[in-house]
Design brief:
The protein is an alpha+beta fold and 302 residues long. Helices cover 33% and strands 25% of the residues. The chain has 3 domains: 81 residues, Rossmann fold (3-Layer(aba) Sandwich), CATH 3.40.50; 128 residues, ATP-grasp fold, B domain (D-amino Acid Aminotransferase, Chain A, domain 1); 61 residues, 2-Layer Sandwich (Dna Ligase, domain 1). A 5-stranded antiparallel beta sheet has the order 10-9-8-11-12. A 4-stranded antiparallel beta sheet has the order 4-7-5-6. Strands 2-1-3 form a 3-stranded parallel beta sheet, with helices on both faces. A hairpin with a 2-residue loop joins strand 8 and strand 9. Helix 1 packs across helix 10. It starts with a strand and ends in a 5-residue tail after the last helix.
Length: 302
């Protein structure tokens, strides 16, 4: 029987989401008769992994440290096969600026913008509104701010010390239109989901609160747009060097007929409201089978 250590929790801002993903994946692995050990990851993670000696690590961590190549490097050192992407792909995908450069090199459309010092962003508009301010390396929409057309100045929180996501940030032109997301499983693009919400945008509450958003699967799109989104997600996955399961997010501007990639998530959520399990079910893959596939796909491959 294969021993699987499910690592979740950690100390990033996405800890609650990670714990929820971890609980779900642990239960699914047990349902498939794996010997499962659950670990709430802390600074003693290496010692705890050595003590339980797993055959595979099922990585349910989200956000900085758990998703950005750090824990992946630790697992490489320990020689334990692990799920999802390796060190480099994880680091590149988490750094939105680096990921944008790779997308552009591979012909994927990105929003106009770039990385600026927070002091410059706070002082005055660095581009004409509407635009979006994003932390360079956060997930679950933490720290994202939309500056609407006609705004007199950037948000006060950028200058008063209450925005706590680093001294530099990504500023991108706001792309109007429809929110789309596409999963990839190995070498296969899964499906296109459209996300709608009554909130200002698809923020943390919209993603994880019950009723926070509506997922339309499959998205009601022209066939050529569906095909383009599936192709773009697989190209992003490949360009970044990802493995396992990823999910790429897009905006589709119908008026301009423009599909813009926003980011690629190397460890997408596996909570009860998460998108990857929904897309897998749409393809006839139940949750335990999806988790089992992740475990069997695990490897040590930087």
């Amino acid at each position: 029987m294969k021993r699987v250590a499910v690592i979740a929790g950690g100390w990033s801002s996405e800890r609650p989401v990670s714990l929820s993903s971890g609980r779900g994946m642990a239960a699914a692995a047990r349902a498939r008769d794996y010997d499962v050990i659950e670990i709430d990851a802390d600074r003693d993670l290496a010692e705890r992994l050595r003590a339980c000696a797993p055959d595979v690590v099922l990585n349910a961590l989200h956000g900085p440290w758990g998703e950005d190549g750090c824990v992946q490097g630790l697992l490489e050192i320990l020689g334990i096969p692990y799920t999802h992407s390796g060190v480099l792909a994880s680091a590149l995908a988490m750094d939105k600026d680096k990921a944008r450069a790779i997308y552009a090199q591979h012909g994927l459309d990105i929003a106009e913008g770039g990385v600026f010092e927070l002091a410059d962003i706070a002082r005055d508009h660095v581009m004409a509104p509407p635009y979006v301010i994003k932390p360079i390396a956060e997930g679950s929409s933490f720290g994202v701010r939309i500056i609407p057309k006609g705004a007199n100045r950037p948000p006060k929180e950028l200058s008063d010390g209450t925005w706590s996501f680093g001294r530099r940030a990504l500023v991108e032109a706001f792309i109007p239109g429809r929110e789309l997301t596409v999963g990839v499983m190995g070498d296969r693009a899964m499906a296109v989901t459209e996300i709608t919400t009554l909130r200002e945008y698809y923020d943390y509450q919209a993603k994880y609160d019950a009723g926070g958003s509506r997922h339309v699967l499959p998205a009601a799109l022209p066939d050529r747009v569906t095909a383009a989104a599936l192709d773009a997600s697989l190209r992003a996955h490949t360009a970044l060097g990802c493995r396992g399961v990823t999910r790429s997010d897009f905006r589709y501007d119908e008026q301009a007929d423009r599909l813009v990639i926003l980011e690629t998530n190397t460890q997408p959520g596996m909570t009860p409201t998460s998108l990857i399990p929904e897309q897998a079910a749409y393809l006839g893959i139940d949750y335990p089978s999806l988790v089992s596939w992740m475990i069997e796909d695990a490897s040590c491959q930087r």
